[in-house]
Design the sequence.
C-alpha cells in the first residue's frame, strides 16, 4: 500500500485546510448508493467487493461538490462498478458511525475490505483526478494504511480531580501558541468553539488581562461569521482573517456563539456583543425552531443550498436549549425561556425512552447515543437553574442515572459513544473525547445540585479517563479538558434566593443571580413551602424583611442581600475570598 500512502500524504496538507462539512439531501433515484447495513457488508463478502463509505451531512458544501463532480463522474463510476459497493451515511443521523471518523472531516471517505477491515480513510473533497488513482491503488494493493497510534494506552479506572502540572503546562503552552496574533482566534481555520470561548471567558472574569484582550479581539472578529440576513453564525471561516464564512450553520455553533456573546455582553458591558447575541437568538427563533416545540438540526446555504435540515434530534434540541438559556440568564428575555421549556417538553414527549434517557431520532438504528443524553441532561439541569422548577432537576437526575447505567465503561471510567453499535464488523465501541468532556462536566455540576456523592464519583472517574494517555497523547488543543479540571477543582458560584416564588422581589433577585457572568454556577430558589432543596447543605436563616439572596461557599455565606443590584458585588467579594 506504499503508493496509496504516498497519495494520501501528498494531499493531507491541502485537505486539512478544507472546512469540516456534512452531507446533502440524498438523491438516489439511480440506485447508486447502498445502505450502511449488515446486509451490505454480507454482500461485499459474498461478492468479494470493497465497501466505500461516504460520510456526509446536510450543511456541507464540499459534500455537494464531491457528489456532483466526483461520485457522479462516469470515469469514477466505471472504476467503482465491478469492485466497490458505494454507501452514503448522513453523519448527523448516525453518531455511532460519524464519531469514529470525525477527525477526517466531512466528507470523509472510508474504504473497507470485503471482510470489513478498514483499508484507508480519506479527508475532505477529492476530485476525479486524484480519486481514481486512489481507487485503482486500493484494488492493486488492499493492505490497510497504518495511521499510527493516535493516543497512548487507556488506563484502569482512576478517580482524580485534575491533571499533572506538566500535562497542564503543555496544554496551556499549545493554546498560547495556537493564538493568531494577526487576526485573533485560535489556529488558521476559525472554528466557533464553545469550550475555547468558555475557558477564556472564565480567565477574563478572573482578572487575566491578556486572556481578556485575546477574547475580546476574537469575539469582535468572529462577528463577521454572523450572516447579515439570517442572523445565524457559520461554524468556520475558510480564511484566517474571518473573511470567508463557510455558510454552514450546525446547531453546536449556534449554541457556542449564543452562550459566549450573551455572557460577554454582561461581563464587558459591550452592546456589540449583546447585538450579536440578539441576532443569534433571532436565528434560532425564526429559522431553526420547529412549530411543534423541538428544533431543526442545521442549515446549509453554500454549494447546493440545501436550506434547513428539518430532521429533529434530541442532541440538537438539547444544544438549542442550553444556548437559549444562557441568553435568557443574561438578558431576561422571556421568549427564550418559553422556547426552551417548549423544546424540553417536546423532547420528553417525542424522544424519551421507556427505560429513561433519550433516543436520537424517531427511530435509532445503532443507539441510544451518549451525545443525545448528555446534551439533554445538561439542558434539563440548565432549565432547573434558570427557573428554579424542581421537576427539571428530577428529570436531569433520571437522565444522569440512564447515562450511568448505559454508557459508563467500568474498566476505564470513560463513557462510550453508543450503547449498541449495530454493525458486527465495526471495531470495539469508541469513547469520543468531546462527549466525555461534556459528560464529566455535567456530572460535576449535577453533584453540586443533587448532593449525591455518586454523581461526583462518576465525574472524577470521567476526569481520570480524560487525564489518561488515551486522550492527552492523542490531542494537544484541549481547553475543554482544562474546563473539566477547573470545575472539578473548584466550587461553582453558589447563590440561593430564599423567598416565595410568587413574590416579585424574589423573582428580581433570582434574575440578578442568573445574570452573574460565570457559566459554572449553582443558582437556586428556595421557596420554603416546597420543602427543603435537593442538596440542602446550607441552613439559611429567616430574614424578616422579605426575600433575600445568599452567596455561599461550603464554609460560609454572605450577609443577606435584598437589592438585586447588590448581588454581583457580593458574589465578587466571595470569589475574591475563595481565591485567597
Sequence:
Amino acid at each position: 500500500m506504499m503508493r496509496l500512502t504516498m497519495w494520501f500524504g501528498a494531499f493531507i496538507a491541502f485537505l486539512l485546510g478544507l472546512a469540516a462539512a456534512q452531507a446533502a439531501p440524498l438523491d438516489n433515484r439511480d440506485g447508486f448508493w447502498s445502505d450502511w447495513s449488515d446486509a451490505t457488508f454480507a454482500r461485499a463478502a459474498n461478492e468479494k467487493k470493497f465497501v466505500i463509505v461516504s460520510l456526509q451531512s446536510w450543511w456541507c458544501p464540499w459534500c455537494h461538490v464531491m457528489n456532483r463532480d466526483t461520485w457522479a463522474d462516469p470515469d469514477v463510476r466505471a472504476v467503482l462498478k465491478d469492485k466497490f459497493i458505494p454507501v452514503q451515511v448522513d453523519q448527523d443521523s448516525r453518531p455511532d458511525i460519524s464519531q469514529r471518523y470525525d477527525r477526517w472531516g466531512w466528507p470523509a471517505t472510508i474504504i473497507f475490505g470485503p471482510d470489513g477491515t478498514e483499508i484507508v480513510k480519506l479527508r475532505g473533497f477529492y476530485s476525479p483526478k486524484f480519486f481514481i488513482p486512489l481507487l485503482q491503488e486500493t484494488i492493486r494493493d488492499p493492505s490497510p494504511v497504518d495511521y499510527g497510534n493516535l493516543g497512548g494506552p487507556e488506563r484502569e479506572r482512576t478517580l482524580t480531580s485534575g491533571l499533572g502540572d506538566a500535562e497542564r503546562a503543555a496544554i496551556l503552552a499549545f493554546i498560547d501558541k495556537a493564538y493568531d496574533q494577526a487576526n485573533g482566534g485560535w489556529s488558521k481555520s476559525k472554528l466557533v468553539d464553545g469550550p475555547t470561548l468558555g475557558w477564556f471567558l472564565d480567565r477574563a472574569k478572573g482578572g487575566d488581562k491578556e486572556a481578556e484582550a485575546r477574547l475580546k479581539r476574537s469575539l469582535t472578529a468572529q462577528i463577521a461569521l454572523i450572516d447579515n440576513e439570517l442572523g445565524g453564525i457559520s461554524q468556520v471561516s475558510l480564511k484566517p482573517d474571518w473573511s470567508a464564512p463557510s455558510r454552514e450553520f450546525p446547531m453546536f455553533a449556534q449554541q457556542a456563539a449564543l452562550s459566549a456573546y450573551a455572557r460577554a455582553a454582561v461581563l464587558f458591558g459591550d452592546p456589540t456583543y449583546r447585538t450579536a447575541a440578539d441576532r443569534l437568538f433571532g436565528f434560532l427563533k425564526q429559522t431553526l425552531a420547529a412549530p411543534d416545540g423541538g428544533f431543526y438540526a442545521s442549515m446549509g446555504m453554500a454549494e447546493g443550498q440545501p436550506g434547513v435540515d428539518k430532521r429533529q434530534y434530541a442532541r440538537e434540541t438539547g444544544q438549542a436549549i442550553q444556548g437559549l438559556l444562557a441568553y435568557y440568564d443574561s438578558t431576561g428575555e422571556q421568549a427564550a425561556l418559553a422556547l426552551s421549556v417548549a423544546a424540553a417538553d417536546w423532547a420528553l414527549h417525542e424522544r424519551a425512552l421507556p427505560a429513561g434517557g433519550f433516543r436520537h431520532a424517531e427511530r435509532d438504528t445503532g443507539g441510544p447515543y451518549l451525545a443525545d443524553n448528555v446534551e439533554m441532561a445538561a439542558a434539563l439541569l440548565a432549565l432547573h437553574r434558570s427557573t428554579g422548577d424542581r421537576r427539571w432537576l428530577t428529570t436531569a437526575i433520571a437522565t444522569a442515572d440512564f447515562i450511568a447505567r448505559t454508557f459508563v465503561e467500568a474498566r476505564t471510567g470513560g463513557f462510550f459513544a453508543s450503547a449498541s453499535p449495530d454493525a458486527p464488523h465495526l471495531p470495539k465501541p469508541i469513547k469520543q473525547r468531546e462527549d466525555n468532556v461534556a459528560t464529566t462536566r455535567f456530572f460535576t455540576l449535577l453533584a453540586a445540585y443533587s448532593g449525591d456523592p455518586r454523581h461526583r464519583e462518576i465525574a472524577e472517574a470521567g476526569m481520570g479517563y480524560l487525564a489518561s494517555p488515551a486522550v492527552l497523547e492523542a490531542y494537544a488543543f484541549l481547553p475543554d479538558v482544562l474546563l473539566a479540571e477547573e470545575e472539578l477543582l473548584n466550587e461553582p458560584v453558589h447563590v440561593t434566593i430564599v423567598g416565595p416564588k410568587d413574590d416579585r422581589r424574589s423573582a428580581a433577585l433570582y434574575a440578578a443571580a442568573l445574570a452573574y457572568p460565570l457559566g459554572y454556577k449553582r443558582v437556586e430558589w428556595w421557596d420554603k413551602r416546597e420543602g427543603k432543596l435537593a442538596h440542602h447543605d446550607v441552613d439559611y436563616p429567616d430574614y424578616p424583611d422579605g426575600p433575600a439572596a445568599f452567596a455561599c461557599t461550603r464554609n460560609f455565606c454572605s450577609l443577606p442581600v435584598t437589592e438585586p443590584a447588590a448581588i454581583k458585588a457580593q458574589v465578587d467579594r466571595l470569589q475574591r475570598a475563595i481565591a485567597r
